[in-house]
Amino acid sequence: MGLYKDATFVRKAKRALSAADDRMAQIIKKVGPFKPGVVANAFQALIHSIVHQQLSMKAARTISGRVLDLCPRRRLSPKAIIAVTDQQLRGAGLSRQKVTYVRSVCDHFLNGRLKPRRLARLSDEEAIEQLVDIRGVGVWTAEMILIFTLQRPDVWPVDDLGLRHALKKSYRIPMTAKRDRLIRAGEKFRPYRSVACWYLWSSLDTGIVPGFD
What is the residue extent of each domain of the chain? Predict the structure, then answer.
């Protein structure tokens, strides 16, 4: 089921966040139910993240669909992707660099350097360290995997531009604020900073929230 589908967890998180900050209480009321887009499969989530790097949502979805078409029964897996040629991946719309990144993801899963069950047992810091060992996966991508795949409740990705925009809009914190200030801004939302972050993203007028919808 996952933590985010646990009604008790969601209820406690919303209650605690609302009590911690009046502005957050208003945001939660305005946005409504907590409905993050989640992909429980870490391999699929990583490929999704790489495909989406530096692309519009529309372009990324088109390319993702083409990559799926290359897989038997459209099932994305390390074995399915490793059987596809670089030329086929390039034909689907991936850049040479992204093909390299996708190959790195496959290598980590097929060689056992990254095991989903073990990843789920690691601390947030240990999981990030494992994930950034993959070519093309930086701290931000790792944090998104923590939030939307591992469903870790207390992640606060201060380098995310969407979060910075939301903090500027709702709390008048400048986009150029130093990391220390941004980290302090999230302290009152512990231990539910992932939930707070999702609500802040959802409060933006763009309606675009990171995740796997």
Answer: 3-37+154-202, 42-148
